[in-house]
């Protein structure tokens, strides 16, 4: 074999080996990618399953108010205090409007002023009673079939303020028809929350300074 033929033979062999290695490497990357996609799909499926099975019952030791009248509860409430959670972080001037629907569900419109973006944010959801509508235990969804518990644990006789607890004690709100409460009323509500095992020292007290958007109307 002459020098030219030897050179061609050697380099063709190198090219074939490189091609085989490249194909093998590509196959490995594809398998790795499909493996990661499979794990991701499994993770998403599990997350959706867990979300769909979210607890909608009151936390142990928390009882929902009964008797309860959704017609008296409807309308706008101002959020005066809350425990910290991601979906309201940075919001002030927060309100919640409840609108009973013909199918016995409740339209929920939450609004708050985002200090960082200097604009109003709004979330529209749906609430349904978990049992008899005379008991203030509901489940609320802002995203498809995924619900979370909403339980009115204390309520003013005239429906002027409400203490609401979520699926566990890390979710709690003080709502009122007015933007402020009398000091003795505020103290009494906080005492009720403490008796229920709520971390009252973690309450974020919400300021109300910006004019609210127009009242939500029946769609």
Automatic annotation (TrEMBL):
Subcellular location: Cell outer membrane
Keywords for this protein: Cell outer membrane, Lipid-binding, Lipoprotein, Membrane
Ranges in coiled-coil conformation: none
Self-association and partners: Homodimer.
Function: Involved in the storage or transport of lipids necessary for membrane maintenance under stressful conditions. Displays a binding preference for lysophospholipids.
Family indicated by similarity: Belongs to the calycin superfamily. Lipocalin family.
Protein name from the UniProt record: Outer membrane lipoprotein Blc
Species of the source: Mycoavidus cysteinexigens
């Amino acid at each position: 074999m002459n020098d030219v033929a030897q050179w061609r033979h050697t380099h063709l062999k190198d090219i074939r080996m490189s091609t085989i290695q490249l194909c093998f490497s590509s196959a490995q990357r594809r398998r790795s990618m499909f493996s990661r996609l499979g794990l991701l799909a499994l993770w998403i499926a599990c997350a959706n399953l867990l979300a769909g099975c979210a607890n909608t019952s009151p936390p142990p030791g928390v009882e929902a108010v009964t008797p309860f009248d959704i017609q008296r509860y409807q309308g706008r409430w101002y959020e005066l205090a809350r425990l910290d959670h991601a979906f309201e972080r940075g919001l002030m001037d927060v309100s919640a409007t409840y609108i009973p629907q013909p199918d016995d569900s409740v339209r929920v419109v939450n609004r708050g002023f985002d200090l960082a973006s200097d604009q109003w944010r709004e979330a529209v959801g749906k609430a349904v009673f978990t049992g008899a509508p005379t008991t203030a235990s509901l489940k609320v969804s802002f995203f498809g079939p995924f619900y979370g518990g909403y339980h009115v644990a204390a309520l003013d006789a005239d429906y002027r303020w409400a203490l609401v607890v979520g699926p566990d004690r890390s979710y709690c709100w003080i709502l009122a028809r007015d933007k402020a409460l009398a000091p003795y009323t505020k103290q009494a509500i906080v005492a009720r929350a403490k008796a229920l095992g709520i971390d009252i020292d973690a309450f974020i007290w919400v300021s109300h300074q910006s004019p609210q958007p127009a009242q939500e109307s029946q769609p």
